[in-house]
Write the structure tokens for this entry.
Amino acid sequence: MQHGGPPAALLAHVLSAHEPVPGTRAGRIAVDVLGPIPVGPVTVTAVTVRPGRRIQLVAAEMTAGGRAVARAAMWRLAELAVPPPLMAGTPGPESAPDLPDRREWRLTFPGAYAEGYLAATEGRPVHASPGEATVWLRQKIPLVAGTEPSPLERILVVGDSGSGISAALDPTRYLFLNVDLVVTVHRDAEGEWVCLRSRTVIGDTGTGLVDTTLFDRSGAVGHATQTLLVTPRT
């Protein structure tokens, strides 16, 4: 099976090309992982669920070997011609953590597979401890050969890593698998680097929640959540 980031970004890639509406942008995408996504050929199909000039909902399904492995729904929202005047006292967007100038960093543990996705991304940590982490990430290869990744695709490629960088459980003893990834972006990210400030909370019965704030080098661009299934390794 492969990491959830690239499949989520591929779903967004197909959705963005499906019946685009001028003057709208992707405000939110929710990806549900239906099963293991193999490292191999996949097929993505898209449909329009809710047409409209100001609000539109499009959905896509990814299949592998005739089996549905993931689904996604994207809300497109109309853009304003000029920024709206916020009420006095409204907090501004959070500032971005500094991008460290240091050697490449990877999250590893005994038995971890360090090739594939981990080899195709670069990470620079700002802070990392059990349950909380802030890490800058960027993809090192194109999502789709011959195309430049969109800002949303860059976010999704690395956005699924929140549960990994902020792991609260020993990965040699427990699996913590996210069944979804929900991303809301209030503006397009700029540049190759995306910062994730993630926090993992695990309930007594094993359900987990990962809460991530997303940044580019100018400041916060959005938010992501993941729902985790926690189970002991056997």
